[in-house]
Amino acid sequence: MNHLFKLKYTKIIVFLAIIQTSLVGCNGKLPGGDARKFPANPEERVKQNLEQGRGFKLNEFGNQQGGVFEFASSNGLWRASLDVIDFMPLSSVNYSGGIIITDWYSENNSQNESIKISIRFMTNEIRSDALNIKVFNKKCINNLLNCKITEQNGILVKELKREILKKATLYKEEDKNKKK
User: Fold this and answer.
1) Are 76 and 121 within one domain?
2) Residue 48: which domain range?
3) Is residue 25 part of a domain?
4) Which residue stretches of the chain are H helix?
5) Domain-embedded: residue 66
6) d(CA 101, CA 86)
7) How many CB atoms lie within 10 A of CB 130?
C-alpha cells in the first residue's frame, strides 16, 4: 500500500513539473500579451483578434501566429465519438491532433479485465474510412500483477464505428435543418 502511495505521489510531482514547464516555457515568462497593446473592452479585443486571425492552441502558448480553427462542437464525427464513449473515463483528448484515448475501463469494478479505446480521426468527412478505432483488452491474474494486453479487432470495433457514423450523420442532418 505504501509503495502505491509513493508511486502516485511521484506521478503527481512529475505531472506538476510538466505543467509548470509548459506554462513558463523556455524564456521564463508566463504566456500572454502586453496589456497596453490590447483594448480593455472585451468586444473590441474579440474584434481585433478576429481581424488579426489569432487562434488558441494549448500546446502553442508562445505562438503569436493565428489560424483557422473548426471547433469541436461543429464536427459531427468528434461529437458523436465523445457521445458513444461517454461512459468511459478519458485519458487523452486532442482535437487538433485528431485523437481520443480512453483510460482503462471495466464494468462492475472488475480489476481483472478492462478495455481501452483509441479513436483517431483520418478526416472530418463522415465516411467509413474516417475513423481508425483500436480496442485493447487487458486481462490480469493475481490483482494486476500478471497482465496481458491484446488488441481486439472484432465486433466491438465494428459496432463502435457504426454507432459513431450513425450519430455523426444524425448531427449533420440536425445542423442542416438548423440552417434552414
Assistant:
1) yes
2) 2-52
3) yes
4) 2-24, 42-52, 76-84, 155-179
5) no
6) 12
7) 17
Residues 79 and 163 occupy one common structural domain: yes
* Cβ-based burial of 80 (10 A; exposed 0-12, middle 13-18, buried ≥19): buried
Q: Is 78 in the same domain as 22?
A: no
147: domain CATH number is: 3.30.530
User: What element of type H or E holds 146?
Assistant: strand 146-152
Residue 3 sits at φ, ψ, to 5 deg, of -65, -40
CA distances from 70 to 22, 67, 83, 96, 124 (A): 24, 10, 19, 9, 10
Is the model more confident about 133 or about 57?
A: 133
The span from the first CA to the last CA of the chain, in angstroms, equals 60
pTM of the model: 0.58
Measured over the CA atoms of residue 101, residue 94, residue 153 and residue 82, the dihedral's sign is positive
State how far the Cα of 90 lies from the Cα of 110, in Å rounded to an integer: 18
Return the top range by mean pLDDT from 11-20, 100-109, 156-165, 167-176: 156-165
Do residues 17 and 102 share a domain?
no
Q: How many domains does the chain have?
A: 2
89 membership: H or E segment, kind and range: none
Grid coordinates given for 81: 465519438
How far apart are the C-alpha atoms of 172 and 62, rounded to whole Å?
35
